[in-house]
Design brief:
Structural class: alpha+beta
Distance between the termini: 24 Å
Strand content: 25-35%
Shape: globular
Oligomer: single chain
CATH superfamily: Hotdog Thioesterase
Number of strands: 6
Radius of gyration: 16 Å
CATH topology: Thiol Ester Dehydrase, Chain A
CATH architecture: Roll
Length: 152
Amino acid sequence: MTSLENTSRERLAQRFPLVVPVQVRFRDLDALGHVNNAVYLTYLETARVVYVRERFGLRSARDFSFILARAEIDYKSPLTLDDEPLVGLGVSHIGRRSFRLAYHIWEKRTGRTVARAETVQVMYDYRRQQPIPIPDEVRRILERDLLLEEGP
């Protein structure tokens, strides 16, 4: 490993308020031995659940009122069974009723970028079946995890 690769990995880890390791499972693979494109959504969800638990202290999905409204993924390089992906997550935008989370997936040993992604979450009142404004206490937590302008 070169010092440039090491520096790049450290910079990525420091840029994101949360970094979550995920395990590539045999069932994640397609016929070519690469992680199937749909599985990346599960990796994003894994990081999102860790984020909600750590930042908001919530244990059940019923405790936090948001719905996933959009997911966008740019695939950069394939993952295989032997890879050790890390998912960096941070807040990229906070609106009135919604917020965006930015993700960067990279391979732990090499620092190779695997994918970049963004999801949009909308605060939601399940009882009334409609979007609601982001509560002040949620907004304060999200603001602490805002990323710099340089993108996911």
